[in-house]
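Record filed here:
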Amino acid sequence: MEYKKNDYLTVTIEDMSSEGQGIGKAEDGFVVFVPDSVVGDKVKATLTKVKKNYAFSELEKIEEKSPFRSEDFDCRICGGCPLGFLQYEKQLEIKENQVRNKLERLAGVSFAAADADDAAAEGPVFHPIIGMREDDNDGDGPFRYRNKATMAISHNKRET
């Protein structure tokens, strides 16, 4: 199927980009990046920029909320927490998979099984990410450590 700008698609989000966009696929495998969506969401999106094998979109509606969606933390204001809509445990899982996949794909690293005896392992062992505990940061949990902000800057003058 050929897709074009302003087409509507309903997709289930299967993964997350490092920028925090949900990644879903149409029935024919066409990849769609959807901001403000998380793994497990079923969403309706409008395509905004279409390439040969993928498209960027805007979220129109969440048809079914993901069981991993968190309403406890919303960081759309500063943009410093691209996975802020996800439960903390799922954030750790996604970050761990992203690091592992990049090391395997880009650096050609082959990891030994994490449960293998370190002394007998062939190659480096990739250990799970260690997250923060609820009682860390004076009881403020896993979100207080965040200190990054991303701001959009425009060179265009806006008339008022």
Summary: The radius of gyration is 19 Å. The mean pLDDT is 82.
